[in-house]
Amino acid sequence: MEAAVRKTARRLVRDFGEVEHLQVSVKGAADFVSTADLNAERSLVEELSKARPRWGFLLEEGGEKKGDGQHVFIIDPLDGTTNFLHGLPHFAISLAAVKDDEIIAGIVYNPISDEMFWAEKGQGAWLNERRLRVSVRKKLDESLFATGLPFKGKPDHDVTLAQVGRVLAVSTGVRRMGSAALDLAYVAAGRFDGYWEENIKPWDMAAGIILVREAGGTVTDMKGDHAMMERGDVIASNGQLHNDMRKLVG
Q1: 161-212 confidence digits (pLDDT tens)
Q2: Which residues are within 8 A (CB) of 244 and not within 5 positions of it... i.e. 6 or more apart?
Q3: Cα(158)–Cα(230) distance, rounded to whole angstroms?
Q4: Which residues are paired to 95 by β-bridges?
Q5: CB 57 within 8 A of CB 67
Q6: Which residues of 120-143 are buried (b: 16+ CB within 10 A; e: fewer)?
Q7: Taking a C-beta distance cutoff of 8 angstroms, is the pair 167, 193 a contact?
Q8: Mind giving me the DSSP string for 126-150?
Q9: Residues near 104 by Cβ (< 8 Å), separated by ≥ 6?
Q10: 3-state secondary structure string, 188-247?
């Protein structure tokens, strides 16, 4: 997985350096897909298929590709596309491995900062070669949170802004960085104490879920269950703040 990600990342970095020359097509209202997305996804599928030819894929751009029915790679080749297209160096490749519907490994890689967040079930979470642990903050007024904000064409603007208002009123702040995968990785690294978002896809969160869990944190859906990828919403925290977060945003 790491080899596939690093190979793909080299081309992404080149594309990022020439972002003004990229061909861009409209995928939806205020939601764009660049040739960089498509090329990165194609590269990841090609490299991973060489190593695991019977595995299936769940892809942001290419949809679902059936495999042996037991193993699946979940891929977002460029999480933070809008940042990428605006020249903001905050984006990532997100790759998760799933066996029998359980996430067993994940990578979130920012090629600009060369930060490789990775985790494997039972082996902990890591940033490059450094072990990760979630933060130990217990008080909301000492804590920093992250979320995503809906843009044009997305639902629930008022709901999300109300959630942000409630969290802002009791915390040190809320950040909107533009990459769900990196937001989750930052919770695992203790940079954020918690993160929540609604109306997102499995490829946005799959790798980040195992990162947070293996770093000692808690991940649920808004109801407190574990149907994040089915429901399309997620709350991730250091564990100690999880109930407080659910009351604020659930």
Answers
A1: 999 999 999 999 999 999 999 999 999 999 999 999 999 999 999 999 999 9
A2: 140
A3: 23
A4: 75, 107
A5: yes
A6: beeeebbbeeeebebbebeebeeb
A7: no
A8: EETTEE--------GGG-EEEE---
A9: 97, 98, 120, 121, 210
A10: HCCCCCEEEEECCCHHHHHHHHHHHHHCCCEEECCCCCCCHHHHCEEEEECCCCHHHHHH
The tokens for 41 are 């996804």
Residue with tokens 């896809």: 201
CA distance 115 to 109: 6
Quick count: other Cβ atoms within 10 Å of Cβ 21?
8
Q: What is the pLDDT of residue 23?
A: 65
Length of the chain: 250
Strands (E), 9-132: 24-28, 31-34, 56-59, 63-65, 71-79, 92-99, 102-110, 115-120, 124-127, 130-131
Q: For tokens 């998760």, what's the residue?
A: 96
Amino acid at 79: D
The two tokens of residue 64 are 């679902």
Report the amino acid identity of residue 190.
Answer: G
| Neighbour-count burial for 4-18, b at 16+ CB within 10 Å, e otherwise | bbbebbeebeebbee
Triad 89, 95, 98: Cα angle to 5°:
160
Distance of alpha carbon 32 from the chain centroid: 17
- Return the bridge partners of 34, or none: 24
Q: What percent of the chain shows pLDDT beyond 90?
A: 85
